[in-house]
Write a structure and sequence with these properties.
single chain, alpha/beta, Rossmann fold, nine-stranded mixed sheet, binds adenosine-5'-diphosphate, binds magnesium ion
């Protein structure tokens, strides 16, 4: 039987995932600062509401709701409309209480009947716990809860992808999928690209694909490889 999928609606992304993210996967997006993680996450929720009538919850661990709304407006997305229609909730949470964070997520997902969830930037988890073991336990319990809620979830992870040793941190360790966003220097310019490192339940593109961020959001050039783009 084919697996149920969540179509991201982000141009090119479902193509390189051979039909979208398998439903209820927990996906970590790791990437350089400014590589487009927040943009991609917002577009995932916006497209969910716009094209597929699916509700989404955005948990912001850094920026206030107003800032996130502004980022959407920058790309011409009327997030406020979907908030009013209860197809979107943007919730700024301070991570001083992990149980409270879990309750907030659970309540919001139930209230909207959300099928999509974003936690951005998720890397903050790691800063919060002194002991690695505590952090692992908590992240595992969060991951279990997300599965139970029946959401296809994205957690972002801000790292420098040049240092691959920092990959496979806590978030990746529980993830069903890992997506890498690069914003790297190549000779005399910067190039943006995306690669799927793993995704449980589906075939994936083995290539590194170029990305464009323009006035209407992020776009993945699924038919191209980074190599052709830059040569
Ligand atoms: N209208 C636009 N046209 C082109 N690029 C844009 C536009 N708006 C924002 N950007 C770029 O998109 C990127 C957005 O990055 P962001 O999603 O905030 O990254 P991250 O969350 O990974 O730090 C930034 O590098 C910014 O310069
Ligand atoms: Mg960001």
């Amino acid at each position: 039987m084919p697996v149920a999928r969540t179509l991201t609606g982000v141009p090119g992304l479902d193509e390189i995932l051979f039909g979208g993210i398998p439903f209820s996967n927990l996906v970590v997006i790791s990437g350089d600062p400014g590589s487009g993680k927040t943009c991609l996450c917002l577009e995932y929720l916006y497209m969910g509401a716009l094209k597929y009538n699916e509700a989404g919850v955005y948990i912001s661990l850094e920026e206030p709701e107003e800032e996130i709304i502004k980022e959407g407006e920058n790309f011409g997305w009327d997030l406020k409309k979907f908030i009013a229609l209860k197809k979107l909730a943007i919730i700024a949470v301070e991570l001083y209480d992990f149980d409270k964070l879990k309750n907030t997520i659970e309540d919001a997902v139930a209230r909207l009947g959300a099928k999509r969830l974003v936690i951005d930037p998720g890397v903050i988890f790691r800063l919060y716990f002194e002991r690695e073991l505590d952090a692992r336990k908590r992240i595992l319990s969060l991951a279990k809860m997300l599965k139970r809620l029946g959401c296809t979830a994205i957690i972002t992870n801000e790292i420098s992808l040049d240092k691959t040793s920092s990959l496979f941190g806590l978030e990746e360790y529980v993830a069903d999928g890992v997506v890498l966003l690069y914003h790297t220097k190549l000779e005399d310019r910067f190039v943006r690209s995306i690669g799927i490192l793993k995704m449980r339940g589906t075939k994936i593109s083995e290539k590194l694909h170029p990305i464009e961020i323009e006035k209407d959001g992020i776009k993945i050039l699924a038919k191209h490889e980074l190599f052709e783009e830059v040569s």
